[in-house]
Amino acid sequence: MSVVLPGVALAQEPGAGQMGVMGQVIFFAGFILIFYLLIWRPQSKRAKEHKALMSGLNKGDEIVTSGGVAGKITKVTDDFIVVEIADNVEVKVQKVAVAAALPKGTLKDI
Description:
Blueprint: H1 6-10, H2 21-55, E1 62-65, E2 70-76, E3 80-86, E4 89-94, E5 98-102, H3 106-109
Antiparallel strand pairs: 1-2, 1-5, 2-3, 3-4
């Protein structure tokens, strides 16, 4: 039929597979929502928890660094802590390198 009436074939609307402007906006908003829920929100939550951990470090706490070194805090300053990893062996570590605080008595069990 398009051979006989080419004007009619050109006047037809595009196929249903194409997305309109509103569909693109909804797709983009859904993409932003998924990005927020899966990436941004959990990362900010972890950062907030780590900041609270760093500010709550005290002398006598048992910690594990991001390098895997476990020890007991003997001195705390603004940016650094001194960690006793064995008898008479102390290491200076940045506070941001602390991965986790351990329950009291954990180092004795290791």
